[in-house]
Amino acid sequence: MAKYFDVHPDNPQPRTISQIAASIRDDALIAYPTDSCYALGCRLGSREGIDRIRSIRKLDDRHHFTLVCRDFAQLGRFARIDNDVFRAVKASTPGSYTFILPATKEVPRMLQHPKKKTVGVRIPEHVVTQALLAELGEPLLSSTLLLPDEDEPMTQGWEIKDRLDHVVDAVVDSGECGTEPTTVIDFSDGEAEIVRRGAGDVSRFE
């Protein structure tokens, strides 16, 4: 049975955030809100967490997982960014964008695209997620909480708790968040390729 954490959307309770971070360090798989929609998240090096996310979402090994980072400095540890790409990414963060970029050696091989050696990275603009990332001290390995054969992610914490009670370890609820996943931009070849149109405005990349 998943633990249920009720977190204030504007002033997250430090004790609760600390409890959530501790559970992640202990290899918990959580469902948590972001500035686009709910996501599944686990510890950066958790192979079990990756396998569980793949199982829940029925993903193959070509799926790009996302490292949800606290800030640009942290993002720069895990992705290689040249000057032109730097400006474009910097101007769009924090926000509802995921960028696919060449991975650095800091990224575990199991998280990289098997052929391209790339990784998805993002910096969310969400108070609760930012508080959790600050407490955790490292990125959250994440994937949009979009179940197989469904068109839209779930938006209510209680609904996620009800449906995924036996496949996740914790649900973080800070009120309703969006229904659109992030906009995904692939910069792995140096040019912007729009992979998915989502919550982030794509006009600057067209």
From TrEMBL:
Any one GO molecular-function label of the UniProt entry: double-stranded RNA binding
Domain of life, per lineage: Bacteria
Domain named YrdC-like: residues: 14-200
Any single Pfam family the record assigns to this protein: Sua5_yciO_yrdC
Protein name as it appears in the record: tRNA threonylcarbamoyl adenosine modification protein, Sua5/YciO/YrdC/YwlC family
Taxonomic source organism: Streptomyces prasinopilosus
